[in-house]
């Protein structure tokens, strides 16, 4: 697929000279800085661009209009419908949900309409640039709604007998409400000579083109010369016009015969110059019989070629099938002579009428609403099996992949927003192929503003069984706490994710801090470690050592001594901590009460001998040996006496 | 205990009940003690304005009908006043500002996680820096500051008496503090559970203040009797996701409301008493029962789940409002309380 490449210039002299490199910062931010590319052949020397002047780093992000407060409402509400659509598909078989899908499509449209209304409300109060911006949004979403409506008629709705005209007229009426509004005000004014109104004939022809024959008749009645026989005749003719509707049982053939009779009748009246006295009425009559010249005359009344198309079809091809639409559309474009300046909206509408879904999707991708439209519409088309049917026609095309690629794109866009990321997740969840992998990549990139948010992100990761992600986020939050001097909190985060190595790292920090300042921090935490201590050996040691301290402080020397011996006998003492333990043994060895048995003392002496070379122990070694010997003497005597 | 949809409750349909779009990731818990005009306050003031001034909001609480305190993720606390001068628009005015009263040792701002108020004046704030601050709405000074009250970040706080507060940290360790005592040590200390469960909200029974209920990260409701608090009285596995908030109805303590990150909002009510009226109920409060609590409670869902986290709820008479992650506030009218 061809894509336009957009170039952004980084306004920096250094970047210009040296070249640039970029890294992803968060989900949607790119960090750009000056960078000189080196390869192995270049000498290992400082870059030529090195200087003392501060250099700049640029953060780039795509502007997403969907993050505007009003449009955020659209995003949130449409997400609700999107989820409803997905649930619908899961729970029912295809035959059942066709009707439901149509309802969903209407819900999407009503959300767009509500959004347009909100935009309009704000527009009246806005000024300057903001006004321009809002106006821009309105244009975009107006087109979105217009195209969606047409696509709904052509691709989602099930039209009995494929007679598309009445829906088409409805679509036109919806998007060119001017005539209806004018007619309503004129009729409400109850004046007798309506033709003095400057828009009078415009409105009459407009209504006629929209197939509102009744309104045309109603508008003709208050004309000052309504009693004139020509007017009466016109009224009569229009009243007699057969109406095609599949519902009231008239078969198409029957209707065609009626229609032919009626047009022949009108034509004969025209030929008899019955209407020539009133040129407007004459034109009306020539229009309803589909006279080419008359339709050329009326062209200027039409704002768009599709308005012309609907009117023309109503009077010349009332029983057109939806697949014939493209052909008629082309014809009206030629007639209106607009083929050379078709706007974007015109092109999409034409493509839709030609049932070229690919073209439609391709065109709507270029609408600047950040993929909202294409994601939702292609999802809807996919579920109404419009895309799957294309798989047979086009080789190497997978409808599911197409749908997923749009939804993925849209979901990723939302993930970049500080409050819409949960919405983005809902979309990514419905991408069966890559959704989970993308979530696993993006979740850790969400900035951790506060712990409540962190917990929330972790919950989302847990819900999807992304244990690596949980661990990664916990570690990030833990490191953040550590940086802020909250080592207890860091440990807490490490324990949350059962991260053994990180826990050990933190426990080491605790012990080293103790060696440095002789105090164990975060006592409230260490006191309540409980079973989580089992995550790492180092933490077990820390917990036990804290317990030893506690026992010692509460003067439970006997228990403290026992704990010390079991610690010495265990193999979990970190190297740097050995000497602390051995020194801690000295006062216990020297205590008045006998605390160590002879075996215990042997353990201590054995350890002391093994660790003789520790530099920290140098000056204390003799004292230790002495007190151990004295204690051994006491213990042996005591044990001998009690044997 | 699958919640059923009660016929008499009329949840508003998701689309029509959207009152206002909110600007934040975390919806502000709007503790509304105000009476009938709370609909209008929601319409007018909760959204963008606050956000621009204070950054991400932590918690808001009303002191009386006009004044409320709000905490921010930048570690500051604001006392605000709502005024309604001439037109219908309600404005907010900051009357007192306690700037950066929560910060880390390295100078970074610490989010003020939540706050609690007692009567009309006393305010307690806690933060991720593990500090507790006692403020008074009449004074700019910090009346009492307990530095390093906890080595983990404090996530919940509640007043038990005017001089006693209970805090709970990231690991579920709960501490009771006596504000009069001069040493910075808690008077009592107990654990929510041994498994690193983070409590997300606390509340006490409106008439029996010693009865405390905590909601946690795993969706369980734990009941404590603070007269003997080392072990919980009972644990109810309730919601799918984390419980975001629980509240007793202020006038009708038989009714409890809870909401969760899985998008559920539930109404718990004690079952109508069956059996002989001659038998006096041995324990009038079902929450204090040791077993079979589930059989004594009925649960209703107030709103079809939206698939997005409900971050907060509040109630007044028979109205419940809740704030949801889809940036909308929902108002549920006519909740049956009997």
Please identify the structural class of chain B as seen in this structure: mainly beta
The tally of beta strands of chain B, per DSSP, is 24
Overall 3D shape of chain B: globular
Low-confidence stretches of chain B: 1-57, 275-281
Helix content of chain A: 55-70%
Largest sheet properties of chain B: 5 strands, mixed
Total strand segments of chain A: 3
Overall CATH architecture of the domain at 30-245 in chain B: 7 Propeller
The average pLDDT value of chain A, as a whole number, equals 84
Subunit structure (chain A): Component of the nuclear pore complex (NPC).
GO molecular function (chain A): structural constituent of nuclear pore
InterPro entries (chain A): Nucleoporin_Nup85 (IPR011502)
Subcellular location (chain A): Nucleus, Nuclear pore complex
Q: Would you give an account of this structure?
A:
The complex is a heterodimer of chains A (643) and B (338). Among the domains of chain A are: 13-61, no CATH class; 67-159 and 358-428; 168-341, no CATH class. In chain A, 64% of the residues lie in helices and 2% in strands. Chain A has helices at 13-18, 69-91, 94-125, 128-156, 165-175, 178-189, 200-209, 213-220, 229-239, 252-271, 279-288, 292-298, 305-316, 325-336, 344-353, 357-365, 372-383, 390-393, 399-415, 421-428, 435-442, 451-463, 467-483, 487-496, 500-517, 523-526, 537-553, 557-569, 578-589, 598-610, 621-642, and strands at residues 20-24, 29-34, 57-61. A three-stranded antiparallel β-sheet of chain A has the order 1-2-3. In chain A, helix 7 (200-209) runs antiparallel to helix 8 (213-220). The longest helix of chain A has 32 residues, at 94-125. The radius of gyration of chain A is 41 Å and the shape is elongated. With 338 residues, chain B is mainly beta. Helix content of chain B is 5%, strand content 41%. The model of chain B is unreliable at 1-57 and 275-281 (pLDDT under 50). Chains A and B meet through helix 2, helix 20, helix 22, helix 24 and helix 26 of A and loops of B. Chain B: This is Nucleoporin Nup43. Chain B: InterPro entries: WD40/YVTN_repeat-like_dom_sf, WD40_repeat_dom_sf, WD40_rpt. Chain B: Pfam families: WD40 (PF00400). Chain B: It comes from Acanthoscelides obtectus (Bean weevil).
């Amino acid at each position: 697929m061809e894509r336009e490449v957009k170039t952004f210039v980084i306004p920096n002299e250094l970047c210009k000279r040296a070249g640039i490199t970029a890294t992803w910062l968060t989900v949607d931010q790119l960090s750009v800085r000056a960078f000189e590319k080196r390869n192995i052949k270049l000498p290992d020397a400082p870059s030529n661009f090195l200087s003392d002047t501060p250099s700049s780093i640029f953060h780039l992000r795509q502007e997403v209009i969907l993050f505007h407060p009003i449009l955020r409402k659209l995003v949130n509400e449409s997400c609700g419908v999107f989820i409803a659509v997905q649930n619908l598909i899961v729970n029912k078989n295809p035959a059942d949900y066709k009707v439901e899908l149509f309802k969903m499509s209407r819900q999407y449209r009503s959300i767009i309409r509500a959004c347009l209304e909100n935009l309009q409300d704000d527009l009246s109060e806005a000024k300057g640039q903001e006004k321009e911006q809002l106006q821009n949004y309105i244009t975009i979403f107006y087109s979105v709604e217009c195209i969606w409506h047409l696509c709904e008629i052509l691709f989602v709705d099930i039209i009995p007998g494929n007679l598309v005209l009445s829906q088409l007229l409805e679509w036109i009426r919806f998007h060119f409400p001017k005539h209806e509004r004018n007619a309503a005000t004129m009729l409400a004014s109850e004046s007798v000579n309506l033709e003095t109104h400057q828009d009078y004939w415009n409105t009459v022809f407009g209504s006629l083109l929209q197939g509102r024959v009744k309104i045309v008749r109603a508008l003709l009645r208050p004309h000052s010369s309504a009693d004139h026989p020509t007017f009466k005749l016109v009224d009569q003719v229009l009243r007699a016009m057969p109406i095609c509707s599949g519902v009231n049982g008239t078969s198409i053939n029957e209707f065609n015969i009626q229609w032919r009779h009626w047009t022949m009748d009108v034509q004969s009246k025209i030929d008899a110059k019955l209407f020539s006295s009133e040129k407007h009425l004459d034109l009306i009559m020539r229009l309803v019989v589909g006279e080419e010249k008359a339709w050329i005359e009326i062209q200027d009344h039409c704002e768009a070629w599709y308005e012309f198309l609907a009117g023309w079809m109503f009077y010349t091809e009332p029983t057109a099938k939806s697949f014939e639409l493209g052909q008629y559309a082309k014809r009206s474009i030629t007639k209106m002579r607009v083929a050379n300046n078709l706007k974007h909206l015109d092109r999409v509408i034409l493509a839709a009428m030609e049932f070229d879904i690919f073209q439609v999707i391709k065109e709507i991708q270029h609408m600047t609403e950040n993929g909202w439209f294409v994601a939702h519409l292609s999802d809807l088309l996919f579920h109404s099996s419009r895309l799957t049917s294309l798989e047979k026609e086009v080789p190497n095309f997978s409808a599911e992949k197409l749908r997923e690629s749009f939804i993925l794109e849209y979901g990723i866009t939302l993930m970049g927003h500080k409050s819409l990321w949960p919405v983005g997740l809902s979309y990514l969840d419905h991408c069966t192929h890559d959704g989970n992998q993308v979530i696993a990549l993006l979740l850790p990139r969400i900035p951790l503003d506060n712990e409540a948010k962190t917990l929330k992100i972790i919950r989302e990761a847990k819900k999807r069984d992304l244990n690596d992600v949980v661990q990664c986020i916990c570690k990030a939050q833990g490191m953040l706490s550590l940086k802020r001097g909250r080592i207890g909190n860091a440990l807490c985060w490490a324990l949350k994710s059962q991260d053994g190595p990180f826990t050990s790292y933190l426990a080491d920090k605790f012990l080293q801090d103790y060696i440095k300042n002789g105090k164990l921090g975060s006592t409230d935490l260490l006191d309540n470690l409980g079973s989580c201590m089992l995550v790492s050996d180092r933490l077990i040691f820390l917990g036990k050592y804290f317990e030893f301290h506690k026992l010692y402080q509460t003067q439970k020397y006997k228990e403290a001594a026992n704990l010390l011996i079991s610690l010495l006998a265990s193999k979990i003492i970190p190297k740097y901590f050995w000497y602390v333990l051995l020194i801690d043994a000295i006062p216990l060895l020297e205590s008045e009460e006998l605390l160590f048995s002879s075996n215990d003392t042997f353990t201590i002496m054995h350890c002391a001998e093994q660790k003789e070379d520790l530099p920290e122990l140098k000056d204390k070694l003799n004292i230790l040996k002495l007190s151990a010997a004295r204690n051994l003497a006491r213990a042996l005597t005591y044990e001998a006496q009690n044997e | 205990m699958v919640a059923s949809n009660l016929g008499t409750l009329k949840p508003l349909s998701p689309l029509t009940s959207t009152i206002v779009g909110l600007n934040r990731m975390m919806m502000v818990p709007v503790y509304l003690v105000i009476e009938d005009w709370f609909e209008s306050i929601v319409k007018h003031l909760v959204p963008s304005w606050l956000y621009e001034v204070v950054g991400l909001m932590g918690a808001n609480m009303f002191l009386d009908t006009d004044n409320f305190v709000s905490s921010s993720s930048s570690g500051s606390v604001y006392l605000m006043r709502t005024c309604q001068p001439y037109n219908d628009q309600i404005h907010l005015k900051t009357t007192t500002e306690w700037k950066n009263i929560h910060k880390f040792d390295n100078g970074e701002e610490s989010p003020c996680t939540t706050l609690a108020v007692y009567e009309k004046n006393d305010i307690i704030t806690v933060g991720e820096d593990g500090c507790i601050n006692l403020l008074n709405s009449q004074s700019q000074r910090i009346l009492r500051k307990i530095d390093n009250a906890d080595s983990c970040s404090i996530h919940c706080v509640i007043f038990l008496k005017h001089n006693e507060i209970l805090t709970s940290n990231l690991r579920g360790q709960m501490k009771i503090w006596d504000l009069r005592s001069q040493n910075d040590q808690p008077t009592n200390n107990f654990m929510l559970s041994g498994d690193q469960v983070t409590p997300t909200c606390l509340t006490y029974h409106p008439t029996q203040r010693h009865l405390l209920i905590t909601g946690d990260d795993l969706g369980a409701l734990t009941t404590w009797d603070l007269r003997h608090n080392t072990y919980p009285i009972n644990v109810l596995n309730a919601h799918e996701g984390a419980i975001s908030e629980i509240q007793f109805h202020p006038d009708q303590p038989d009714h409890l409301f809870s909401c969760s990150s899985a998008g559920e909002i539930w109404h718990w009510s004690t079952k109508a008493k069956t059996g002989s009226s001659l038998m006096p109920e041995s324990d009038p409060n079902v929450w204090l029962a040791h077993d079979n609590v589930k059989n004594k409670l009925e649960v209703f869902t107030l709103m079809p789940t939206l698939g997005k986290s409900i971050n907060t709820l509040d109630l007044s008479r028979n109205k419940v409002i809740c704030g949801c992650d889809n940036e909308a506030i929902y108002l549920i009218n006519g909740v049956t309380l009997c």
